[in-house]
Amino acid sequence: MLxxxxxxxxVSLKSIFANKSSVVILLFQALIPSIVxxxxxxxxxxxxxxxxxxxxxxxxxxxxxxxxxxxxxxYAIDWELNEDxxxxxxxxxxxxxxxxxxxxxxxxxxxRLANLLLLAPLLLLGGIYLFVNQLWQISFLVLVEFTISLIxxxxxxxxxxxxxxxxxxxxxxxxxxxxxxxxxxxLLAGYYFPLEILPKQITNVVxxxxxxxxxxxxxxxxxxxxxxxxxxxxxxxxxxxxVLLYFVMLLVNRKGLQRYSDVMG
Amino acid sequence: MEQTMIDVxxxxxxxxxxxxxxxxxxxxxxxxxxxxxxxEAVKNLSFTVxxxxxxxxxxxxxxxxxxxxxxxxxxxxxxxxxxxxxxFDPTKRETNFKKSISVVMGNRSQLFPDLTPRDxxxxxxxxxxxxEREFTQTVDNLANTLKISNKLDTQTRKLxxxxxxxxxxxxxxxxxxxxxxxxxxxxGLDVIAKRDLRKFLIKLNKDEQLTIFLTSHDMDDIAAxxxxxxxxxxxxxxxxxxxxxxxxxxxxxxYVTFTKRENFDATNLKAKIVTQDELTITIKVPAGEVENAVxxxxxxxxxxxxxxxxxxxxxxxxxxxxxxxx
Lengths: 265, 326
Fold this sequence. Notes:
The complex is a heterodimer of chains A (265) and B (326). Chain A has 265 residues and is mostly helical.
């Protein structure tokens, strides 16, 4: 069965490379927000000034890092599921010898790998620039911690996004729900700005939610030189979220498919 | 005991449909207290299909054909009743059940538009765990029969509708299913593509003993491929039997079509009028009385250019529906 999902990963990856326009859009999508945020924060933060504990170079790394994580983690599974449920495309998957959530997960992996491969040269150049100019130093341990966090971020993101998309089993039009979700999640994940910028009490609340693991936590691991115990305790909490959301996803998936089979088809 | 491939007992499907109103007040009211109506899409269907049979599942738009196919393939769950496909209960969606069926829908593509058909077929080979050598050989043979060997490495979105449908058929049978469900498979295709696909299905049924369950509004598809007909009207079966029996039952009459002459008077006709326009008319006459009827019409100078034809399957089915809806 694993061979099937590996084959789906390959097909998903090939689909991205088969379409030249999606390659170009992807590159623009990754580059433009990074450049805009870079200039914005460069203008806001002067000299040795810090915001939320971030100095200028850390903020630059933050935005490059956030966009890197974004391109690896954030796959619009909710939009896709919403579309497949309402168009009836889901039926094509239902009568195949596949598990539906595994199918979408494999598709996401393929798509994200394609992103990673496309952006790899740019990220490598960016990394070399930061390293040569001594804007950023990194240990091997931090790199391992970051990679693990990134993988868990992708899994957590999938589960959350799949759950949001599953609402389409019960409601006709999710367009506005998904738009609002994007804004709220971007904010709570630390995509717009580092969460540490918020007042301490709000930061504490936001950091108790799972959203920080989508962007903020992996990037904090990368640039804030946190202790191993900090990474370990947060990773354990993240794993707990993964386990919880996994069981919720199984339940919602079962109920949703039951409803699809009862009334939608 | 005779083996059964499809066994359907008292199968029913009901939907709850929310009634939409025109006024803003009623629309707002509907949000909090929706007014719903129960629609019976399929009513108490029972039938059996033997292995290797070719079934034509016929009905008007909204008769419940697609809903029935969806229940038989496990996409929809019945409101009541049961069905067994090759011994499997479709609602359980077991892997072996999924591997024993294939579904091709004319209005819904399963191919990947950005990739080539070979990419898609290769995924199916892995998914259905078919030996690679055997699979390649089957693909080559079938692609040859369907005349699409040179299209397997072309990006799917660059194929014509006919070519895409042929690939869908190929993908449908290459997994070696026991039952092939086809829902309007030739919709929008030209005559040559339709002919190729019909020949392909007939050959497949003969060679592989594949059970085919076909719905189509194109009666030429049904006439060419199917030997057993199940006709449904408003979710209920009105005919379940061999195509030959249906043709024999209604084949005792013939159609006489002629051009109306100036002094044509419809009240003088003793036969039933099937269709008419300003210039021509078609009447239904018992087969043994055709000669006398034409002679009488000619003698009374009622018409000219007489054409006599047998009732086609399409004519019979139209009559059957008209009779049921009376």
